[in-house]
Amino acid sequence: MNNQLTETADFLKNRGITGAETGIVLGTGLGDLAHRIRPEIVLDYEDIPNFPVSTVETHHGKLIYGELCGHKVLAMQGRFHYYEGYTMNQIVFPIRVMKLLGIKQVMLSNAAGGINLSYKKGSLMLITDHINLLMNNPLMGPNDEDLGVRFPDMSEAYHPGLLHQMRKAADEENITLYEGVYTAVSGPNLETGAEYRFLKIIGADVVGMSTVPEVIACNHMKLPCVAVSVITDECDPDNLQPVKLSDILETAAIAEKSLTKLFERFLLIG
Questions:
Q1: Of residues 142, 89, 102, 138, the one with CA closest to residue 10
Q2: Nearest to 270, CA basis, from 30, 38, 23, 69
Q3: DSSP three-state, residue 252
Q4: What angle do CA 91, 25, 164 make, to 5 degrees?
Q5: First to last CA, the chain
Q6: Cα 86 from Cα 184, distance rounded (Å)
Q7: Structural domain tally of the chain?
Q8: Mind giving me the DSSP string for 60-117?
Q9: What number is the average pLDDT over the span 47-67?
């Protein structure tokens, strides 16, 4: 794994990807921010050594290096999921490469179902903590001491300074930004009514199928991160209705306008 990380990082450096300090991961239906980046280099995942290839049609599978709000950024337009059949090491591989490239902070986004019914569809939630129900972990197996310690602390999984900065960005843009707990499940099926009730009991505010592995990897490497969920559907077990992917994408497309403003203001503040 270490050899693969070094090979990929060297490949990207040789292509001119250097000096970026912010990494961005764009989730399902949230690729519009990529169009706001003034691109210098755009690479398809399949053209990058050792990179997985996104198999989800709503994830474009492009690595974009360029400028956003006066900052050099490296953005993933599309991520990898456990339900696609990838290992945890493959899922977090790009995050580890970002660290080797000198990235100083990571901003993540995702589409999620709303367990907390006071958070309405189309709104944004700042993730302040998470619950990992993926039943797997990117740190399982032999530990690579070059990346981090065997037992990394997760008491502040989402960096307090970046949380403060994101709250300030929301205030300046007059964007309602809820806060809460994200729970990651494997998917790809959506949950049953009984599962939604269970998730509410254990303290989940939203549920999704990503983000947690990347956040664990960030903390392992002491790479500060912050994450925001777009709530694309309301998961009311007592009034459960079938959800179509097209509906999720439609809601994400509306909400990503606010997400784009939020992320841009976050960078401007920084």
A1: 102
A2: 69
A3: helix
A4: 120
A5: 33
A6: 16
A7: 1
A8: --EEEEEEETTEEEEEEES---GGGT--HHHHHHHHHHHHHTT--EEEEEEEEEESST
A9: 83
Beta bridge partners of 129: 181
> Beta-carbon neighbour count of residue 152 at 10 Å?
17
Give residue 64's pLDDT: 97
| DSSP state for residue 35 in the 8-state scheme | G
For 128-156, the pLDDT digits (tens) are 999 999 999 999 999 999 999 999 999 99
Please check whether residue 54 is in contact with residue 61, taking contact to mean a CB–CB distance below 8 angstroms: yes
Which pLDDT score is estimated for 56?
A: 63
Give CA–CA dist 247/237, Å, rounded: 18
Of 38-47, 53-62, 212-221, which range is least confident? 53-62
Read off the tokens for 109.
């986004």
Residue with tokens 């007592």: 238
CATH number at residue 165: 3.40.50.1580
Q: How buried is residue 180: exposed, middle or buried, by Cβ count under 10 Å (0-12/13-18/19+)?
A: buried
CB atoms closer than 10 angstroms to residue 20: 22
Domain that holds residue 83: 2-269
Residue 110 has pLDDT above 60, yes or no: yes
